[in-house]
Automatic annotation (TrEMBL):
The lineage of its organism: Bacteria, Bacillati, Bacillota, Bacilli, Bacillales. This is Uncharacterized protein. It comes from the Bacteria.
């Protein structure tokens, strides 16, 4: 029995070593009406009893025994399917990580370029020529708006910009 983090590779080995499925849950009525069985079409694999089997054990209801039987039978195909889904999701996660880091690197390149352009615009503001107007708009105002637009994004989250 595993405690803590599951070892899915070990779980896969256990699944592959088990009798191939599908497994079937059945109720036994002969010789008594207190047992349930998991098996294949041609083999009995496990029996689940209702009642109290030995001194010191707790009473197992018919419903609990039946539910345990169905659980084990369904787990034969359900657990390998879950392991497949876990692997698919892990692969998707790895792909998304790669996309994130590729896009992060590109964003940092753009961020660096924005910072270089902002610095250049700030130098341009130091010249008197930007106080002229073009079509009723001062060049200085256009440059200051460009600088403030890039500043509104906040500080860069990139490490090397």
């Amino acid at each position: 029995m595993t405690k803590g983090k599951r070892d899915f590779a070990r779980d896969r080995v256990i699944c592959e070593a088990a009798t191939p499925g599908p497994w079937i849950a059945r109720a036994w009525t002969v010789p008594t009406n207190d047992q349930f069985n998991v098996g294949t079409e041609d083999a009995d694999l496990a029996t689940f009893w209702q009642g109290k089997r030995y001194a010191g054990s707790r009473e197992v209801s018919a419903e609990e025994a039946r539910s345990n039987t169905v659980f084990v039978a369904e787990a034969r195909e359900g657990w390998p399917a879950a392991l497949d889904e876990i692997e698919r999701l892990r692969e998707d996660y790895r792909k998304l990580q790669n996309v994130y880091f590729e896009n992060y690197a590109r964003a940092c390149e753009f961020d660096g370029e924005i910072q270089r352009l902002r610095a250049a615009l700030e130098k341009v503001l130091q010249h008197e020529a930007v106080d002229i107007s073009f079509n009723g708009v001062r060049i200085r105002d256009i440059i200051q708006e460009a600088i403030s637009t890039t500043t509104e994004r906040g500080e860069s989250k990139c490490v090397n910009t």
